[in-house]
């Protein structure tokens, strides 16, 4: 993509309304545009990142055996009355009426709707286990939306819902999602720590928040330092092997980890000082078992092996891709801008032509652009007539993993300068070796 033909509305000054780093950098880098309080348009650069985050989420959900669907954003209030939540949910729910005066709502979540789908088609234990997920826009009328897409009213959510015959099956489903989440966040360059979360009135211990450590985190978290070196399951993980998956979960839930709300001072005091990690954290995912909370009142029942009907045991599993992008930036930036992990970067390479209009510079850049693109790399070619300082500032701000800098002196010597955004390291290499050098961009 040539920058001269791209829509990238860079802001030179820090927006006054931006309170945290991610909000500031997303606005400055032309990723989003605020339309109303807690409501944003995703501009081309931001949409590319959002799509890559969603693709990783999708791949890991599919790997774990979940099946993708897509449910409507507008839901009938009748379903929520069945579950008993319509009147209890609070002002966060946007309630509306259609032209026939029927009560409707803009979905803040989808437990009722997915339960209705399940009960309409599944009647036997032979069709279990089942896990359905979708990636869809949600709306919650937050009393005080803030921090950009970190806490907005309209947001993109991946929510999965598992259905099993009994608690043991539900626990196995929960474990599969637990491991899928570990892999998902690692692939995005994040180190996520699963921390036991409150299960509320349902009870039990099957609820975890996945937290990344960041100075700008919303909550205080406490964990054993072993979490920083635990091995993340690889792509060859067998999600059909419940014992293997359960072993991974046990390994990842044995060391101490808790948010401020669940913190146990006695257990914390028993840990050696050298092994304690106390920091700020950002929640990037939440998994939760809620048993028969929806299946029982809504009649989602199956016939078991004994011929008797019973409500299915359910769980829900959420990741907010739009919020996750802000979390990635909070964890990966410097004073000059964003530092994207390669897997979610909007482009792999910023190709910078230092002297547009110079015949040899233009030729060398055009050839590099074609060669890099043919090699499967995504290139943002800065072919604008902006000054060199502005080009460097833009490249650093938007945070692409590599910068390939081509100027008259370098072209005359048959060379280009390469800069790795993450480390800041620069090197000069022959033009013919550029593709091999940055071919590991992903």
Compact overview of the structure:
The chain has 442 residues and is of the alpha+beta class.
Radius of gyration: 25 Å
Helix content: 25-40%
Identify low-pLDDT runs: none
Number of strands: 23
Shape: globular
Distance between the termini: 17 Å
Question: Total helix count?
Answer: 13
- Taking all residues together, what is the mean pLDDT? 94
Major sheet, described briefly?
A: 9 strands, mixed
The amount of beta strand, in percent, is: 25-35%
Coarse structural class:
alpha+beta
Topology:
Elements: H1 21-28, E1 32-36, E2 39-42, H2 44-63, E3 67-68, E4 74-76, H3 77-83, E5 94-97, E6 103-106, H4 111-121, E7 130-139, E8 154-164, H5 167-187, E9 192-196, E10 207-213, E11 219-224, H6 242-253, E12 257-259, H7 265-269, E13 276-291, H8 295-298, E14 301-303, E15 309-311, E16 313-319, H9 321-331, E17 333-334, E18 337-338, E19 349-353, H10 359-374, E20 379-382, H11 388-398, E21 402-406, H12 408-412, E22 415-420, E23 426-430, H13 434-438
Helix pairs in contact: 1-9, 2-5, 2-9, 5-6
What does this protein look like?
It contains 13 helices and 23 strands. By secondary structure, it is of the alpha+beta class. The strands form six sheets. Strands 3, 7, 8, 9, 10, 11, 12, 13 and 16 form a nine-stranded mixed β-sheet that branches. It has a five-stranded mixed β-sheet with strand order 20-19-21-22-23, sandwiched between helices. Strands 4-6-5 form a three-stranded antiparallel β-sheet. It has helices at 21-28, 44-63, 77-83, 111-121, 167-187, 242-253, 265-269, 295-298, 321-331, 359-374, 388-398, 408-412, 434-438, and strands spanning 32-36, 39-42, 67-68, 74-76, 94-97, 103-106, 130-139, 154-164, 192-196, 207-213, 219-224, 257-259, 276-291, 301-303, 309-311, 313-319, 333-334, 337-338, 349-353, 379-382, 402-406, 415-420, 426-430. Helix 2 packs antiparallel against helix 5 and helix 5 (167-187) crosses helix 6. Helices cover 31% and strands 28% of the residues. It starts with 20 loop residues before the first helix and ends with a helix.
